[in-house]
Amino acid sequence: AAAATGALPVRRIITTAVASRRSARGRLALRGCLSSLDARDLHGFAYQMILASYSESFLEQHEARVPQWIEAIAEANTCEGLGAIVKETLATEAEEHPRHTLRLAEAIRAQGAVEAGLVISGSEDSFSTIESAAELAAAAEWEHVIVEGAAHAVPLEQSSAWRKVVRTFLDS
Asked: By 3-state DSSP, what share of the chain in percent is helix, strand and coil, each rounded to 5?
């Protein structure tokens, strides 16, 4: 958002798991998460987010650790705090919203303040699909790279591949 105003000097931007619009699955997952928070169910919220954010292969590999993650999320957060984040995320879905990702990308491009940008997406992301991430990259005139085998949590699922993409972009 700061780059869209031109107020701060930004040479390069890298976004991960951000797209022009969320998929129906992503919108419904967020509404389900919000419903859990409204019911004051942090554990249910955490399970829903983990299911929506990680690929099947990652969940298979780490299934035994998920209950610890759920407890950590529940202990470190409040329903009010997470609810505010989810509500803001859903509010920015409206294309006329000033912080809608396409509006920000267009503003950043119009400002000419950013030398280069990169949109990274996971091949299995159900929140931010590859097509929607490509649309965002095109709107901003940035590069788009797909990391295979990752869902929404690309840096956690495919950390080596993600770091390689980031380093290659920053070194170019």
From this structure: 60, 10, 30
What is the C-alpha to C-alpha distance for residues 111 and 91, in angstroms, rounded to an integer? 25
What are the pLDDT digits (tens) for 40-66?
A: 999 999 999 999 999 999 999 999 999
Mean pLDDT of 13-39: 90
Instruction: Give residue 169's identity as a one-letter amino acid code.
Output: F
3-state secondary structure of 171: helix
| CA 6 – CA 92 distance, rounded (Å) | 21
* Residue 169 DSSP symbol: H
C-alpha span between 120 and 100 (Å, rounded)? 18
In whole angstroms, what separates CA 44 from the centre of its chain? 20
